Amino acid sequence: MQKVVRFCIFFIVSVVFANSLFFIGIGVTKTVHAYTLIAQGRLEERPGIFIAESLDSFLMALFFLIFSTGIAKLFLPDSIFIKKNDLPWLKVNNFGELKFIMWEVMLTTLFVFFATQAMVKAEHPTWTMLVLPASILLLAGAYKVLKHGH
After folding, report:
1. Closest of 81, 103, 82 to residue 147, by C-alpha
2. Segment 33-42, tens digit of pLDDT
3. Which long-range contacts (CB under 8 A, 24 or more apart) does 120-128 make?
């Protein structure tokens, strides 16, 4: 039974890591497209938006990478990969620590996503654009209360 659980955890970690690689690919593609537009002098197509979207893709890749590594450290601490690649900035001993790290990365990712959407919709803003920053504010407040107490 223990081998089945270890295999399931390894499978989950592998799929989440593959998601990270997928978002890295999207980020690279958007970055190359943006610099191609700049090199061709097609600045009216707003290459800066593609660069901001690539940053958002890279942050999502980082989110999945941290999550897969954190789960592997928690459930597969004796695996060769985890022993060889000790990341000093990712010291997790329980789900609580991993949760707070993931929360910080997600808040950063949501902020960059909002900034990108604000640039895209700058010409025609609507009141619904305020939903995302309000959500970010609520999540940040909840994070502060849980992390640092009342």
Report:
1. 103
2. 999 999 999 9
3. 120/49
